């Protein structure tokens, strides 16, 4: 059992742990780590998560399950369509500035209802009512960006939205962008496939020591 006071790990090591956990989940060999009473007791006085996962609120996208994690492993923030607002940015800055988390994951998924709603609005010009309208307004730029790239399927738009969200996150937070520039934090975008269960890397900011990682410059 890992303890809450385990040594700080690098962004690359955090990404490796997530990859291995997702591979176990896909293969049906999940270990369900850090879910026992001793682990629960060890976390009473503090936490030391190794990753923050900012994902869609969809009930099929339970981060701790798809990455085979346990108590204290991940700091999780979720909104429909992984839409960024001030509360999200504050939560992510807290995870980096106070908890020292080395990896931020933006987690999207195929067949996303929020992205589908934004696509419908772009196609028909009809806006939804209530606060769903706010979600659609914030996702619409990603839908338009996908269309400019001649991508018109919802799942292609989901990937584009994940990329756009990761980039906007780095652009919006000086604290996070500085941590990325200093090599303390990496920000990656993952697209989850509901049927297969695998999370595919689609974008990245900050150097990671794995050949599959996309090495991107910070947005200007």
Automatic annotation (TrEMBL):
Q: Which InterPro entries match?
A: Carbonic_anhydrase, Carbonic_anhydrase_CS, Carbonic_anhydrase_sf
List the catalytic activities from the record.
hydrogencarbonate + H(+) = CO2 + H2O
Superkingdom classification of source:
Bacteria
Q: Which Pfam families match?
A: Pro_CA
Q: Per the UniProt record, which EC number(s) apply here?
A: 4.2.1.1
**What keywords does the record list, in alphabetical order?**
Lyase, Zinc
Task: Look up keyword Zinc and say if it applies.
Answer: yes
UniProt-listed CDD domains: beta_CA_cladeC (cd03378)
Query: What Gene3D superfamilies does this protein's entry cite?
Result: Carbonic anhydrase
Residue spans crossing the bilayer = none
**What does the UniProt function comment say about this protein?**
Catalyzes the reversible hydration of carbon dioxide to form bicarbonate.
As for family, the record states: Belongs to the beta-class carbonic anhydrase family.
Designated name of the protein: carbonic anhydrase
């Amino acid at each position: 059992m890992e303890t809450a006071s385990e040594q700080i790990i690098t962004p690359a090591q955090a990404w490796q742990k997530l990859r291995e956990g997702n591979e176990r989940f896909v293969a049906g060999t999940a270990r369900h780590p850090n879910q026992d009473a001793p682990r629960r007791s060890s976390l009473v006085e503090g936490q030391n998560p190794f990753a923050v996962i900012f994902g869609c609120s969809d009930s099929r996208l339970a981060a701790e399950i798809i990455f085979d994690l346990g108590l204290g492993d991940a700091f999780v923030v979720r909104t429909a369509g992984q839409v960024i607002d001030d509360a999200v940015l504050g939560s992510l800055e807290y995870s980096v500035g106070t908890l020292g988390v080395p990896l931020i994951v933006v987690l999207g998924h195929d067949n996303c209802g929020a992205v589908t709603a934004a696509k419908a609005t772009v196609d028909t010009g009809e806006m939804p009512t209530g606060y769903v309208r706010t979600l659609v307004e914030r996702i619409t730029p990603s839908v338009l960006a996908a269309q400019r790239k001649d991508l018109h399927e919802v799942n292609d738009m989901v990937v584009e939205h994940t990329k756009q969200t990761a980039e906007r996150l780095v652009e919006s937070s000086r604290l996070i962008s500085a941590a990325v520039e200093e090599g303390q934090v990496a920000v990656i975008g993952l697209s989850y496939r509901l049927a297969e269960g695998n999370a595919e890397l689609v974008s990245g900011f900050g150097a990671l020591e794995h050949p599959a990682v996309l090495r991107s410059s910070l947005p200007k």
